[in-house]
């Protein structure tokens, strides 16, 4: 579970100090699917970066699956990030020179998984997102929706505790957006915590909980009726 207690994030430049997050307290359970919404500049990316251990809190406590990480340095954050987190981005971020299967396999190369086991898990992940038949294609030969499903496979193949998705449906048409939402929903059902930033009200409504941010604060939360 993710627990933020009075977390603030301040960005300082020579001239200005920006309070990007202002004493945010939040708990996100294991296997929960949460959407984060709010207008541009409200702190969504900052929150995602903190949850993704890409940046450290300025003050407050952050317990990442039971581990207080607010005092951690770069090395420990990097190791934890590699072992526990999968990322999905709006623009897919696949490597054009690699095949679909190789793109997914990349996520395992840093994790000391033996080659035979890697191949098995890549095949399994591609099967899960319905793209086994595209394994040898290049990303550019796929539609946007298919590319995003590859990105989801790459996030899932390392069996993360947490998937962070930054507007994963932002570049997709309705049908493909729905397909990606279905994959994230089923990952959460399987026990993966999913936190998704989105501008889509309908996709936010598919999450179990919506957290609304404004000016670096949580201003509202909506839970999906059971
Ligand atoms: P959102 O993702 O909701 O658009 P952000 O988290 O990107 O919002 O930004 C929140 C606030 O923090 C904004 O005022 C933004 O300008 C500021 N900010 C974000 N990142 C930085 C940074 N690296 N340096 C300085 N200010 C930043």
Distance between the termini: 20 Å
Indicate the overall shape: globular
Give me the CATH architecture, please. 3-Layer(aba) Sandwich
Largest sheet: 6 strands, mixed
Order of helices and strands: EEEHEEHEHHHEHEHEE
CATH class: Alpha Beta
Q: Which hetero ligands occur in this complex? A: adenosine-5'-diphosphate
Q: How would you write the strand order of the largest sheet?
A: 6-7-8-3-9-10
Q: State the CATH topology.
A: Rossmann fold
Domain module count: 1
Count of extended strands: 10
The unreliable regions are none
Going by helix content, strand content and strand pairing, the class is alpha/beta
Give an overview in words.
The two termini are 20 Å apart. The longest helix has 16 residues, at 174-189. The radius of gyration is 18 Å and the shape is globular. α5 (144-156) packs parallel to α6 (174-189). Helices cover 35% and strands 28% of the residues. It has a single domain (2-223), classed as P-loop containing nucleotide triphosphate hydrolases (Rossmann fold, 3-Layer(aba) Sandwich). It has a 6-stranded mixed beta sheet, sandwiched between helices. A hairpin with a 4-residue loop joins β1 (2-12) and β2 (17-28). The relative contact order is 0.20. With 226 residues, the chain is α/β, with parallel strands linked by helices. It has 7 helices and 10 strands. The chain has helices at 44-51, 74-84, 100-109, 115-128, 144-156, 174-189, 201-206; strands at residues 2-12, 17-28, 33-37, 59-64, 67-68, 85-89, 162-166, 193-197, 209-214, 217-223.
